[in-house]
Write a structure and sequence with these properties.
The complex is a heterodimer. Among the domains of chain A are: 147 residues, no CATH class; 144 residues, 3-Layer(aba) Sandwich (Rossmann fold), CATH 3.40.50.300. Helix content of chain A is 63%, strand content 10%. Chain A has 21 helices and ten strands. In chain A, strand 9 and strand 10 form a beta hairpin. Chain B is α/β, with parallel strands linked by helices. Among the domains of chain B are: 186 residues, ABC transporter transmembrane region fold; 225 residues, 3-Layer(aba) Sandwich (Rossmann fold), CATH 3.40.50.300. Helices cover 65% and strands 9% of the residues of chain B. Chain B contains 22 helices and ten strands. In chain B, strand 4 and strand 5 form a beta hairpin. Chain B starts with a helix and ends with a helix. Classes of the chains: A alpha/beta, B alpha/beta.
Chain lengths: 578, 623
């Protein structure tokens, strides 16, 4: 049942119009079969009573009805066609929009955790699969279930013993299929593992292509990749090889009913409790009654595949958006109170971390990579909720904060900057959608990007991002600072904003950042300790714990971690390679 | 258009041709299975015959004959399924083997094309082609190819058989088949159909593009609280995709339903003709029996004919993927010389090098290097400095022949690198770039990449010199530690040091360095620096410097801007010149003394800093 719920995006009722049309169409198809039986009965009568001859008059009537019935079948087929495609496109369009809306509510942490390619695939590819399954497999499934069921009931009235013989093996076939399911799950699992392995190796290969070229490890010589492709090949063949006979066995069991029925028939005929015309009827129905079921079994793989797609969609939709309606005052104090947090349950990144950041001060986070610095900034923006302890701003616990309003009060400048496929002007306007052109230019000037933008072929109207002209890392960085300036939020989070820039860009970005942080509550992560020498407070993190805190002078005086880092860096500063 | 698609289909057949034997077997068994699946209907016919013969005295009906044919039907079904399985396995083994070969071929090929291809093409796209587009071929080879063969063979055999039984009825049967296919062909060939299909493709691409942007931009959308716009564009695209898809569905509706009803009800057309003939000779009982055989078998003709239509639709998908695969494979590879020349010395010379990443007819065409000539003497250090985007990194990658230059020449020890061949060139040059890539393997193997013949001691020796022995020893499994994916992740700085150990082990006479300390924290930075000092000893070094203080002592500093060399000399010479280098040096000094916040000495407004270098310099001097 969950299959129907999943493929219809949680609303199985939306499949009803197409399912009822499939039912109608299936019933319409019974009539020609019945007429065929009638035709053969007429011929039979001419054999039983040769003196009466072939009743061609009656045959003409049957022929006329048959031909006329074509129009009816055309009608039901058109209805089915209309409804199943409409259902398919409606379910997928509606589902895509709903999912898109749902994604908007999810926490930023969710997008950090999942590969955007995966999410896109659910939104586009998996719904495409669902579309196909609703337009093709759903009508098939309906016929496969309904037609044999109707036949059982109808034939049982005629002769229950023959009907029983015909369908006696069907439950065993279905049972085998059900058993197959768990085996299939196991086999698919190892197949999926092989597939993921190959995918990871391919990713590794393509990411390292420069080194592979340089160390001449391409193609055949990069054995790990070749082996993983080979294992995938074997796993795929094994899956086909084992699943095939099982599905075929189910098919065979179901169909063996036909032979059992003939045997039963000949026994009953001999006993005189069955007449020949009834036997003929069972014979003619029996040979076709399992056809719809066979069609479904033939596309069994496809149906399962779409069930996975549907499940992936539902998994995303089950992801809960962060809740809370409290309005945060971003000009208040930021407080971490005994915060313990990890991305995975058993690996805490922050442990019992407590500190407070006074409004309108500059606080720097320092520590080796992996000490949890970036995690702190992400928790302030509520990418995630903490597992223990509490993060609060202006006295409001973030767990209760309205997520979108919270972000209104925060500006973030990170190393990687996302530009929309739009003009550069609109990319800055993102900071404040109502900004005028003059405001945008003013922000761009303050962020040191007006000059390079003016040099672009179409100035502020130059398209950037995917398919547009590309900006250098430093230029993107400055665009993101212009955005932040325009946004003018009370809290500013800076994560390694200047790490990978060349001197010229670096100086410009630095100036821009100084514009940004005036009169704001600032939290900055920087490797170059000199940069943060004059911060109001420096927090030194080590393995998710607060190791030291104080001003630069205090920390240097303490002779702890910070002071050691400081002296190493002083030394490194004057370093020459030769 | 049609011709092009035909060629694509040919491409598919050529791929399939590699496994001719298996696929031929698969096709034969596929036909055999289809024929065997007809046997039960023949059995029914024989039973009907027996029943008819016994119609006058039901007790005369021989029960054994009935059961015999019932068993025949069952055995035939078993045989049909066995044949189906054998055929299916043959075609699947062939298919999966072809996928395997194709993937190996593709990955081999992409490592032989110039690096330019990889910067142009996103990794994700390439990965998708190697995974998804190749996967689709499986459907074609394993399912559709044998299906097509049997879907064509079975109707031909059947119609032939039916002609033998009664040619009049068989001719009547041909009429609806021909009409059905004619109706089908009309929509696909018609202008309206083609047009609709094109706009469908367009709407789908539009939806995909906005969908990708929607998801990728989501963090930015949330951070800046953009309420509706990006959602609206996606919503619009989804809506118009549905509308166009529905429009196409409506165009196809009548012809499709007609085709479907006609082809799936073929036997209906036989009935009037049969009755007509029977009316001519009412006593002809053997004709009546033949008519029954016709009526029993014709429905089996419908199945393969309907299948042919579905396959036609499915082929389009694969053709699209096949095009992408073909495009990757037709990407030209780096040209290797017939007889590689070995250089005897290791000085580097760039002679009038001009270069652009794009082809001249591309709309993004931009000359990156306009005229670069310089030589780096053997055993000396040459530093490349200049504003970002000026061409420094390009020069370094050209030396590795990641791209070929359009004009001019690059020589090592007097031998043009084009004539050296990739193997010799790579033996002569090692490099350490900013973005180090470590492979999913042990640390030891990752270092050994530098020199595959190196023994354990040599690996450890290199690690020691690159100051990474210490942290490797601290890891749980030491040199056996696996990197990435469930193994250990190294920090950027540690990865850098591994890369340096790799280069030390390789010990090539020429070293290309992209100053690599930018991402590292203080402790790592110091260690990387120690490693680099070891590494550059006695080598011809080409270094891209970001922090000018690093390369103050280089024998030669080459200043690159906008694709050409503007200054060159030693640090002191260049400072005296008072040109670009001097400006950069001043900027560097002021950046190094930058401090965040209100008390920053060097912080003026933005305009000050960029426009007014002199003032900044004055401040630095005051410092």
């Amino acid at each position: 049942m969950s299959y129907w719920t999943n493929i219809s995006g949680g609303n199985p009722k939306s499949l009803w119009p197409s399912a009822s049309a499939a039912l109608l169409d299936g019933i319409a198809k019974i009539v020609p079969a019945a007429l065929l039986v009638e035709l053969i009965r007429i011929v039979y009568r001419s054999f039983a009573e040769p003196e009466a001859g072939l009743d061609t008059g009656r045959m003409w009537i049957v022929a006329a009805v048959l031909v006329g019935w074509l129009a009816v079948m055309y009608g039901t087929n058109s209805i089915l066609y209309d409804r199943s495609y409409k259902a398919a496109y409606d379910v997928s369009a509606e589902g895509r929009m709903k999912l898109a809306e749902h994604l908007r509510g999810l926490s930023l942490g969710y997008f950090g955790k999942r590969d955007p390619g995966d999410v896109t695939n659910v939104l586009l590819g998996d719904y495409g699969q669902v579309e196909h399954t609703i337009s093709h497999n759903v009508p098939q499934l309906i016929s496969a279930i309904v037609l044999p069921a109707l036949a059982v009931v109808g034939l049982a009235f005629l002769d229950w013993r023959m009907a029983l013989a015909m369908f006696v093996a069907l439950p065993f076939g279905l049972l085998l299929l059900a058993l197959t399911d768990s085996l299939q799950a196991r086999l698919s699992e190892s197949h999926v593992r092989a597939k993921n392995e190959a995918s990871n190796r391919l990713q590794e290969y393509l990411s390292g292509i420069k080194e592979i070229k340089a160390h001449r490890m391409n193609g055949q010589r990069f054995e790990r990749l070749r082996f993983s492709f080979d294992r995938l090949k074997r796993a795929s063949i094994r899956l086909e090889g084992i699943m095939g006979p099982l599905v075929m066995g189910a098919m065979l069991l179901a169909r063996s009913g036909f032979t059992i029925m003939i045997a039963a028939g000949s026994y009953l005929l001999a006993g005189g409790t069955l007449d020949l015309p009834s036997f003929l009827l069972f014979l003619l129905v029996g040979i076709r009654v399992f056809d719809p079921l066979t069609v479904v079994l033939m596309s069994y793989g496809e149906i399962r595949y779409s069930a996975y797609s549907a499940k992936r969609i539902m998994d995303v939709r089950k992801e809960l958006p962060p809740e809370g309606g409290a309005i945060v005052d971003p000009t208040g104090e930021i407080r971490f109170h005994r915060v313990t947090f990890g991305y995975e349950d058993d690996k805490p990144v922050l442990r019992e971390l407590s500190f407070a950041i006074a409004p309108k001060t500059i606080t720097a986070l320092v520590g080796p990579s992996g000490s949890g610095k970036s995690t702190v900034t992400r928790l302030i923006a509520r990418f995630w909720d903490v597992q223990q302890g509490e993060v609060s701003i202006g006295g409001t616990p973030l767990r209760e904060a309205e997520p979108e309003r919270l972000l209104d009060g925060i500006s973030m400048v990170f190393q990687d900057v996302y530009l929309f496929a739009d003009t550069i002007g609109n990319n800055i306007r993102v900071g404040k959608m109502t900004a005028t052109q003059a405001e945008i230019e003013a922000a761009a000037r303050r962020a040191c990007c007006h000059e390079f933008i003016s040099r672009l072929p179409q100035g502020y109207d130059t398209p950037v991002g995917e398919g547009g002209s590309t900006l250098s890392g430093g230029e993107k960085q400055r665009v993101s600072i212009a955005r932040a300036l325009l946004k003018d939020a009370s809290i500013v989070l800076l994560d390694e904003a200047t790490a990978s820039l060349d001197p010229e860009n670096e100086a410009a970005v630095q100036t821009a950042i100084n514009e940004l942080v005036a009169d704001k509550t600032v939290l900055i992560i920087a490797h170059r300790l000199k940069t943060i020498q004059y911060a109001d407070r420096i927090l030194v993190l080590e393995q998710g714990r607060l190791a030291e805190s104080g001003t630069h002078d205090e920390l240097v005086g303490q002779g702890g971690i910070y002071s050691r880092l400081w002296s190493i860096q002083q030394e490194a500063e004057g370093w020459q390679v030769k | 258009m049609a011709a092009k698609e035909e060629r694509q289909a040919e491409g598919l057949l050529r791929i399939a041709g590699q496994k001719k034997g298996l696929l031929l077997t698969a096709s034969i068994f596929s036909i055999l299975s289809s024929l065997l699946q007809l046997a039960p209907f023949y059995a029914v016919y024989r039973i009907v015959e027996e029943v008819m013969a016994g119609a006058r005295s039901p007790s005369a009906v021989d029960g054994d004959v009935l059961v015999y044919w019932g068993v025949v039907a069952f055995v035939a079904l078993v045989a049909a399924l066995v044949a189906l399985y054998i055929g299916g396995m043959c075609s699947h083994i062939a298919a999966f083997d072809i996928l395997y070969r194709l993937r190996v071929k593709l990955t081999d090929h992409v490592a032989c094309v110039p690096m330019g291809y990889h910067t142009r093409t996103s990794k994700g796209e390439l990965k998708k082609i190697i995974e998804v587009s190749v996967e689709r071929i499986e459907k074609f080879i394993a399912h559709q190819l044998p299906d097509i063969v049997s879907a064509i063979a079975i109707p031909l055999l059947l119609i032939g058989y039916l002609f033998g039984l009664d040619w009049r009825l068989a001719v009547v049967l041909l009429v609806p088949i021909v009409v059905g296919f004619w109706i089908q062909a009309r929509i696909f060939a018609g202008e309206a159909g083609q047009e609709a299909y094109r706009s469908y493709q367009y709407a789908m691409e539009e939806m995909n593009a906005t969908g990708v942007e929607y998801v990728r931009g989501m963090p930015a959308v949330k951070i800046f609280g953009i309420k509706a716009e990006s959602f609206l564009t996606f919503k619009q695209a989804v809506g118009s995709y549905r509308d166009i898809a529905m429009r196409i569905t409506m165009i196809c509706k009548t012809p499709y339903s007609l085709f479907f009803v006609i082809v799936s009800s073929l036997f209906v057309f036989v009935v009037p003709a049969g009755v007509l003939i029977a009316s001519g000779s009412p006593g002809n009982q053997s004709f009546a029996i033949t008519l029954i055989l016709f009526l029993l078998i014709t429905p089996s003709l419908s199945v393969p004919l309907l299948k042919l239509m579905y396959i036609g639709g499915g082929l389009r998908d694969i053709v699209e993927g096949n095009k992408r695969i073909a495009a990757v494979l037709s990407e030209p590879i780096v040209q290797e010389p017939d007889s590689p020349r070995a250089p005897l010395a290791y000085g580097i010379e760039f002679r009038g090098v001009r270069f652009a990443y794009e082809k001249p007819d591309s709309k993004h065409y931009k000359q990156v290097l306009t005229d670069v000539s310089f030589s780096a003497r053997e055993g000396e250090m040459t530093a490349l400095v200049g504003p970002s985007g000026g061409g420094k990194s390009t020069i370094a990658s050209l030396l590795l022949r990641f791209w070929d230059v359009q004009e001019g020449e690059i020589l090592i020890g007097g031998v043009p690198i084009r004539e050296m061949g990739t193997d010799r060139l790579m033996d002569a040059v090692s490099f350490v770039f900013q973005d180090v890539h470590l492979f999913y393997d042990t640390i030891e193997e990752n270092i050994r990449m530098g020199n595959r013949e190196a023994g354990r001691e040599q690996v450890i020796e290199a690690a020691k010199r690159a100051s990474c022995h210490e942290f490797i020893e601290k890891l749980e499994h030491g040199y056996e530690t696996r990197i990435g994916e469930g193994g250990t992740y190294l920090s950027g700085g540690e990865a850098q040091r591994i890369a340096i150990a790799r280069a030390l082990l390789k010990d090539a006479p020429i070293l290309v360095l992209d100053e690599a300390t930018a991402y590292a924290d203080a402790e790592n930075e110091r260690k990387i620096q120690q490693g680099l000092i070891e590494l550059v000893k006695g080598k011809t070094v080409l270094i891209i410097a970001h922090r000018l203080s690093t390369i103050r002592m280089a024998e030669q500093i080459v200043v690159v801007r906008d694709g050409s060399i503007v200054e060159r000399g030693t640090h002191d010479e260049l400072r005296d010149k008072g040109g670009l280098y001097e400006q950069m040096w001043v900027a560097h000094r002021s950046a190094a003394s930058w401090k965040l916040g209100k008390r920053n000495a060097a912080a003026g407004t933005a305009e000050d800093a960029t426009k007014n270098g002199r003032e900044v310099r004055a401040r630095v001097l005051l410092d």
